[in-house]
Amino acid sequence: MRDAKLAVETGVDGLDVVIGTSSFLREHSHGKDMAYIEKTAIEVIEYIKSKGLEVRCKSCSPSHSDPRLHPEIPEISPMQQCPDEIGCGALTSSAVSSEDSFRSDLVDLLSLYKAVDKVGVHRVGIADTVGCATPRQVYDLVRTLRGVVSCDIETHFHNDTGCAVANAYCALEAGATHIDTSVLGIGERNGITPLGGLMARMVVTAPEYVKSKYKLHKLKEIEDMVAEAVQINVPFNNPITGFCAFTHKAGIHAKAILNNPSTYEILDPADFGLTRYVHFASRLTGWNAVKTRVKQLGLSMTDDQVKEWYVTRASWALGTRKY
Ligand SMILES: [Zn+2]
After folding, report:
1. CA–centroid distance, residue 300 to ligand 1 (Å)
2. What is the pTM of this model?
């Protein structure tokens, strides 16, 4: 409560209230029991509301009730502050998030959220703080929670086991309304759901909606900017913006891609302001890629000449011909 009062005095528009609910955190971190957590949460929410700060309590429309039919509904929250590292974000409403939700008792969690939903909290949040959740667990928990509260549901997934994007997507399918993301997934340890990875997942599911709502062509720019600012490299195999994302090498792939890109691409690089690259100098490249490059350069070569060049070059690459 003391923190909430101080925060309200600063003039923020809303508060994000976070508390660890798992037995690990209750025992080894703050030491409070569930009765104390619920009582304190309600006191804080009522205090925030009494100060006239906006509290949006959105009722579920039928389309929210079956999100699998409308996967485009949820709101992605890029650069959302991490609730387990930073307890107070500048939201425009009050929200209550649990920490380490997937190692919390389900009855405790639902009871807490039902209570705070009843007093008009705008949003409840669940956090996979240690990155232990599987997509199926996420779907089950969010789906159950969706049936208990009428407010928005925010989710936060760490990537310790490589499931952060899949978990975020399953949360959306189950009825979550908000997903925490960060640029390049930067966060505690190996981070949280990356904005770019989630965009890649979302644009395949709901292309027109995602392309109209988000400035996808800005993704590379913001990732490069953040990477430079924090002095890291964008991973070579990063979804969309990684060096290899739209590079094709294998002969059989290159030939098909040149005929119809959809053959081996589920994402269109043009949607992100990027271009594909068919590698024609790799030892894996077939002669069709070379032929296309010859055309691009405006050179006049017959198919036999291209094949001869290709065979010669392949011999060099394989070390069977040395000159
Ligand atoms: Zn976190």
Report:
1. 58
2. 0.72
